[in-house]
Amino acid sequence: MTQASRLRPDERRAQILAAARRVLLADPHRELTVERVAAEAGVSPALLFHYFGSKKKFRYAVIEEAAAEVMLRTAPDPSLPPDEQLRSGIRAFVRAVLEAPQLYRATLLMSAAGDPEIRALHSDLRRVFSQWVISAVAERGIEVTPVVQLACYGWQGYVEQTLLVWIDNPAVSPEALEHLCEQSLDAILSTTSE
């Protein structure tokens, strides 16, 4: 696309974010750079900075959009039985991460490094996902005690670390990774019965 100045600012931002998504999908293991995204969008890096202000703000916008998409993709489908809701949501989450592993890694590392905006976004994402998992567990007929809640939160940390390790060393297939994440929740929940 040429540098047409006729796009409204919100349209130009959307165009650049769509280009970032294409770059991530085309080569999910390469780092997302301003130069690559600008080239894909058909704009100059300077124009990208004009719309986002800084590399950090650009990255935040990309992460925010990806987080919103993950939430949409993993939202429970109430037409499915509770067990299938849970399985399909976990699989959707793992697939979303595997489509953009560098973005996922950047999100977790920036959150761990104390970036307040990324940490808040990551906390929101975790809270929504954890509440969804806890609700799905309750739908399966499991009493949601404080121990069960704690186990669900802990499981999410386990999944995050498992995905980070897999991104650096994909020693098993994506399907095996999905299965591991699904089965680990049941294994952890089995330790909560009194």
TrEMBL record:
<keyword id="KW-0238">DNA-binding</keyword>
<dbReference type="InterPro" id="IPR001647">
    <property type="entry name" value="HTH_TetR"/>
</dbReference>
<protein>
    <submittedName>
        <fullName>TetR/AcrR family transcriptional regulator</fullName>
    </submittedName>
</protein>
<dbReference type="Pfam" id="PF00440">
    <property type="entry name" value="TetR_N"/>
</dbReference>
<keyword id="KW-0804">Transcription</keyword>
<dbReference type="InterPro" id="IPR036271">
    <property type="entry name" value="Tet_transcr_reg_TetR-rel_C_sf"/>
</dbReference>
<feature type="DNA-binding region" description="H-T-H motif">
    <location>
        <begin position="33"/>
        <end position="52"/>
    </location>
</feature>
<dbReference type="InterPro" id="IPR009057">
    <property type="entry name" value="Homeodomain-like_sf"/>
</dbReference>
<feature type="domain" description="HTH tetR-type">
    <location>
        <begin position="10"/>
        <end position="70"/>
    </location>
</feature>
<keyword id="KW-0805">Transcription regulation</keyword>
<dbReference type="InterPro" id="IPR050109">
    <property type="entry name" value="HTH-type_TetR-like_transc_reg"/>
</dbReference>
